[in-house]
């Protein structure tokens, strides 16, 4: 089973350093230019990232950005890395597409020597910073940062300027049924509606009622409470699910899962200090990794 394994990346260059590339500050003419300062390159030498985390680009948004670029140019440079004699986009594909539509011949870029993992990391971070992400897209981005790169909720909260509870509550939305998640993707349900549905066993049925009735978040919370009070007490006790765990327990599960890169479940006995932790491995290599970590 023994084989060469790379050391965990931890935070790599650090989320804060990567964030600085996603949101670069203007460079003062009185100060020395930073590493790989902004330059102009022919737009035909820039290619899209085939592994771009975001696949959908709304035409209306692109049209608005194209009009803005025609009038003012590309105000924020694209982040690219050298690839096959040209450049591959790390962040800024929307600007590149709009610049093409505006028939620009050159675009401003910041050239970075990113590895494949760092490239994916920056692309995810840029998506998180976008104001038009829906709650599910944002939750999936946080999950990717935790699972692929081992980032903890605390580190993400610090670097992204958000609270840990905000991140934890969003990630919890990924436990909802697929049809409910799709309604959030389509913006028929808000993040507030979705959070209210997390603790119920019939989220799909309630979601349909919420959409059909155009219920507010407060009305949704009342509907969920009413639905729960109508359940049989015995059935609730017998069918306790992971959705009943409090936010702190779920957050701890997510942190441990990110650190171990395996699914972790915590069963904490109500009213006591005892409990159990279950770690699920997907293959023998992961079991070998786990044994090595525990033996250390």
UniProtKB/TrEMBL annotation:
GO molecular function per UniProt: DNA binding
Family: Belongs to the ParB family.
SMART domains per the UniProt record, alphabetical: ParB
Organism of provenance: Tritonibacter litoralis
UniProt region (Disordered), positions on chain: 1-35, 228-250
Limits of the HTH cro/C1-type domain: 143-170
Alphabetical GO biological process terms: chromosome segregation
Keyword tags: Chromosome partition, DNA-binding
Compositionally biased tracts (Basic and acidic residues): 240-250
Gene3D superfamilies to which the protein is assigned, alphabetical: 1.10.10.2830, 3.90.1530.30
PANTHER family found in the cross-reference section: CHROMOSOME-PARTITIONING PROTEIN PARB-RELATED
Function in brief: Involved in chromosome partition. Localize to both poles of the predivisional cell following completion of DNA replication. Binds to the DNA origin of replication.
GO cellular component: chromosome
Protein name: ParB/RepB/Spo0J family partition protein
Domain of life: Bacteria
């Amino acid at each position: 089973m023994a084989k060469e394994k790379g050391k965990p990346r931890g935070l790599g260059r650090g989320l804060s350093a990567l964030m600085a590339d996603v949101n670069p500050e203007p460079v003062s003419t009185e100060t020395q230019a930073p590493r790989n300062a902004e330059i102009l390159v022919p737009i035909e030498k820039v290619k899209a990232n085939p592994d771009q985390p975001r696949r959908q680009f709304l035409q209306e948004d692109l049209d608005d950005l194209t009009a803005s670029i025609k009038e003012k140019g590309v105000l924020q440079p694209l982040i690219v890395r050298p690839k096959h004699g040209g450049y591959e986009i790390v962040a800024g594909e929307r600007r590149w597409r709009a610049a093409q539509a505006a028939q620009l011949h050159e675009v401003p870029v910041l050239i970075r020597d990113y590895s494949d993992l760092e490239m994916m990391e920056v692309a995810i971070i840029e998506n998180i910073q976008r104001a038009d992400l829906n709650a599910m897209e944002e939750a999936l981005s946080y999950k990717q940062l935790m699972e692929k790169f081992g980032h903890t909720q605390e580190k993400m909260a610090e670097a992204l300027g958000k609270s840990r509870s905000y991140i934890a509550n969003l990630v919890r939305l990924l436990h909802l049924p697929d049809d409910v998640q799709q309604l959030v993707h389509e913006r028929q349900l808000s993040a507030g509606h979705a959070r209210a549905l997390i603790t119920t066993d019939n989220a799909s049925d309630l979601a349909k009622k919420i959409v059909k009735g155009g219920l507010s978040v407060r009305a949704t919370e009342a509907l969920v409470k009413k639905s729960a009070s109508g359940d049989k007490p015995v059935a609730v006790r017998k069918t306790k699910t992971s959705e009943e765990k409090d936010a702190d327990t779920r957050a701890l599960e997510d942190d441990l899962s990110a650190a171990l890169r395996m699914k972790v479940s915590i069963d904490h006995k109500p009213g006591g200090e005892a409990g159990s932790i279950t770690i699920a491995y997907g293959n023998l290599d992961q079991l070998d990794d786990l044994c090595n970590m525990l033996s250390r």
